[in-house]
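Sample pair:
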Amino acid sequence: MNGHSPRESVHSQDISEMQVSDRDLRVLSNECVQGGECFGNCKAMLKCRLCEQCILEDDRADLAQAYSEHVSKGAMRRLLPSTTIRFPKIALTQIDRLQTIWFDRKCKLDSAWCH
C-alpha cells in the first residue's frame, strides 16, 4: 500500500474530494433545470447523468479525479478523451463516453479544457 495505512489513504481521498466542488464539475445548465430535457428524467440521455441531481457517486468520483488531474497537469496534455481528435468508432465504456461528454462541455465553457 505504498507505505501508507488504509486510514491515511481514506483521509487523502476525503481531502481530494473537498478540493473539488459540485460547481467545479458542473457542465450542464439548461438541460438540468425545470423545463430542461434532463429535469426529472436522469435516464433520458447519457449526458443527463452529469446533472447534479442525477450523478452517481462513482461517476462523481471519476470526474473529480479528472478535474484534479487537469488542475495539476502543468505542461502535460491530456490524450484521452480527446476534444479535438475524433477517433473512428472505438468501443468506449459508459464512463468513457460520459467523460468524453463532460470534457467536451468543459472545453466549451473554458478553452483550457480543450487540450
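Residues 94-109 form the longest helix (16 residues).
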